[in-house]
Sequence to fold (381 residues):
Amino acid sequence: MMEVTSYIRICRFLTVDIFEYRTMKYFLLAMYLVLSPLILLQGYFFLKKFELKYFVQYETIYMLSIYMWVSIYCQPYTTNIVKTYIDQIQVWKIEEAADAIKRKVKQTWIFITAYMCMTIALGLIAAISSSIPTSRDKDLIFFFKIAELYFPKLENLIMWCVKPAFFVSIYVGISTPGFTILYFHGHANLQKLMLKHCLKDINAKFEDLEYIRWNSVEYHKEIEEKLMFCVKRHIQLTENALRPLRLAQVYVFPLQIVGTCVMASVILVFFAFEGSLSDQYFRMVVLVLTTSAMLVGFAAGGQGIEDWSEEIYEALCQVEWYHWNLKNKKTYLFFLMNATRKFKIKYSENISLNYRLGLEIVKAIFSAMSVIYSLQQKKNS
Fold:
């Protein structure tokens, strides 16, 4: 049976270490420089020849290209967010935790590792299916159409140069910042559980609180030391988390919007494309599943960060404080007020990255599907 540290190392490699290789950095830079003019060129053609049929044909790959471009741009920043946070705080090691905490932490890391591997597998299948030539490639992938129109002699060479890039670009797309948020959540979860254990342990030495004298110097001094340790630890964890969360608000939002647009564009192509797409169904299904897995990762990571502060507050409310002296009660009150601040990846006052937002996105996509299907039925009747 694998140890917790093995799961953490796997997740760290998939999230951080793989992007530290110089070859990967050069490859991403080359892709970024190639995608930039191609996206601008396709946008120009959309504006020059704006027809619904033309837009539907190439919208999916266009939105996917934008998603990859944004992912490559954000990758250095999102990776640095996690590395900086873990380096800045004096993290408790898993070896220092109690057995019950180790089991809970292991469950979290098993889930994160399984999710990452499943999403990578879906992305790999999507990349392979996109690399296999079909008769509709030029009608759906604008880059190939450009090669046919402007570089006919180099058409085959361009196609075989572009297709291998699908593998790296899709991996960057699914890992940035979805994997980063979950990796951050995995480490924060360990610190949360150990801090909760410290809070529960404040009165652990004094089982018969009813019989403790109010003037017991030993009792109140030990409570003060334990309480101050928890306060300082909470401040250290929360203050260092502010910058990563602020940066996540900037980088997650555009990726989530574009990712939703990719799913919506696939559905639009499926309902509104003129002609047969029978040879594209597998590609489309795998692409939708991969994009869905990415959005689920966003929501799960965001919800985990939101639950972090709420669980600390709930644990603090359960502390038996009523036997403490006035000084310790004031410290506890300060701690309680500080713990009321919730940590969220917020886009606005009413919108945060969590399960509720994911559900709203799913509802919006299904509503769009029903409207498009109704219009298609009216058109055919």
Observations:
- The radius of gyration is 26 Å.
- DSSP finds 13 helices and no strands in the chain.
